[in-house]
């Protein structure tokens, strides 16, 4: 399912016992480094809901969405469902957590060999696309970095033909990684925003036009991509306000995105991703025409707020 969702080769998952872990606990390692840990006690099910206070069990937090829950004896599953709780078995808790880790670390999991495998698959169906791209314009490593850049922001790479066409066109002008990634995103366009839509409606957070223009004036090129040379106070304000608006939208059941000018998008994503890792940052051109846009918040300038 993940391979179809992301469009990449999912590496083999190896499992083994570890006596150093507490009873009922599990750890997920990536390249030998622990990246996540959770619990799945035997004989128990995880109940998530608001009416569990009077039921015996151990309070916990669901590892993917951070929802409060309680581990209950398996015999109480039906009782928990009767009071409106969502009940999840141990295996589903672990596999859901593992799937989320794969999504969040997909860029690190995409190896050079994986890119060669994907390229060979496209060569069979669309040989001209591959011949124009590599090695004529880009080396396999350049293609890998571009695909990793897409996956890093959870943009699926299923449509490799269109992605390769976009990379070929951009590579004739420049081979910088950021430009290649943005060219591919521009081609995918509506497909990116569609994955965050709910019933044809997209919840959008925007920057106030005056603030966006001020931020645009602070955009600078860097060795590792563009960045914003903002005053610390202004940068903190944008980060805090964006996170506040995103959390408020999520509490109302929305899936918000932050929209901005295309030139700002990579740098604004770098600025906000630490405080709001789940908030996608999209260029205006990536907001699909087929979607109904609903503004759920606007980030205004700090000085305007103070006034």
Describe the structure.
With 307 residues, the protein is of the alpha/beta class. It is 44% helix and 19% strand. It has 14 helices and twelve strands. The chain has helices at 2-6, 77-82, 90-104, 106-109, 112-125, 127-133, 140-152, 160-171, 177-188, 190-194, 209-217, 232-251, 265-272, 302-306, and strands spanning 25-30, 33-39, 44-48, 58-61, 68-73, 86-88, 201-207, 219-220, 227-228, 256-260, 281-283, 292-299. It has a four-stranded antiparallel beta sheet. A hairpin with a 6-residue loop joins β8 (219-220) and β9. α5 (112-125) crosses α6, α7 packs across α9 (177-188) and α8 (160-171) packs across α9. The chain starts with a helix and ends with a helix. The mean pLDDT is 94.
Question: How do the helices and strands line up, and which of them pair or pack?
Answer:
Blueprint: H1 2-6, E1 25-30, E2 33-39, E3 44-48, E4 58-61, E5 68-73, H2 77-82, E6 86-88, H3 90-104, H4 106-109, H5 112-125, H6 127-133, H7 140-152, H8 160-171, H9 177-188, H10 190-194, E7 201-207, H11 209-217, E8 219-220, E9 227-228, H12 232-251, E10 256-260, H13 265-272, E11 281-283, E12 292-299, H14 302-306
Parallel strand pairs: 7-10, 7-12, 10-11
Antiparallel strand pairs: 1-2, 3-5, 3-6, 4-5, 8-9
């Amino acid at each position: 399912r993940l391979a179809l969702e992301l469009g990449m080769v999912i590496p083999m998952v190896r499992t083994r016992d570890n006596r150093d872990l507490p009873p009922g606990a599990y750890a997920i390692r990536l390249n030998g480094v622990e990246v996540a840990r959770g619990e799945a006690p035997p004989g128990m099910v995880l109940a998530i809901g608001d009416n569990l206070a009077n039921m015996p069990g151990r309070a916990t937090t669901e590892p993917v969405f951070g929802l409060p829950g309680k581990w209950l004896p398996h015999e109480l599953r039906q009782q928990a469902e009767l009071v409106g709780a969502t009940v999840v078995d141990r295996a589903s808790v672990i596999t859901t957590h593992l799937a989320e880790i794969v999504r969040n670390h997909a860029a690190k999991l995409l190896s050079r060999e994986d890119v060669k495998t994907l390229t060979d698959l496209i060569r069979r169906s669309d040989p001209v696309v591959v011949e124009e791209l590599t090695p004529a314009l880009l080396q396999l490593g350049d293609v890998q970095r571009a695909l990793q850049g897409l996956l890093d922001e959870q943009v699926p790479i299923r449509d490799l033909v269109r992605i390769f066409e976009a990379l070929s066109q951009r590579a004739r002008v420049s081979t910088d990684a950021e430009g290649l990634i943005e060219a591919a995103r521009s081609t995918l366009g509506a497909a990116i925003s569609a994955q965050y839509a709910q019933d044809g409606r997209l919840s959008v957070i925007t920057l106030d036009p005056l603030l966006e223009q001020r931020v645009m004036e602070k955009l600078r090129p860097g060795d590792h991509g563009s960045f914003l040379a903002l005053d610390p106070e202004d940068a903190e304000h944008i980060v805090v306000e964006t996170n506040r608006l995103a959390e408020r939208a999520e509490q109302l059941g929305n899936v918000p995105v932050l929209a901005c000018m295309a030139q700002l998008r990579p740098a604004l994503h770098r600025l906000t991703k630490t405080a709001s890792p789940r908030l996608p940052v999209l260029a205006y051109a990536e907001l699909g025409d087929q979607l109904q846009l609903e503004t759920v918040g606007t980030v205004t300038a700090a000085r305007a707020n103070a006034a």
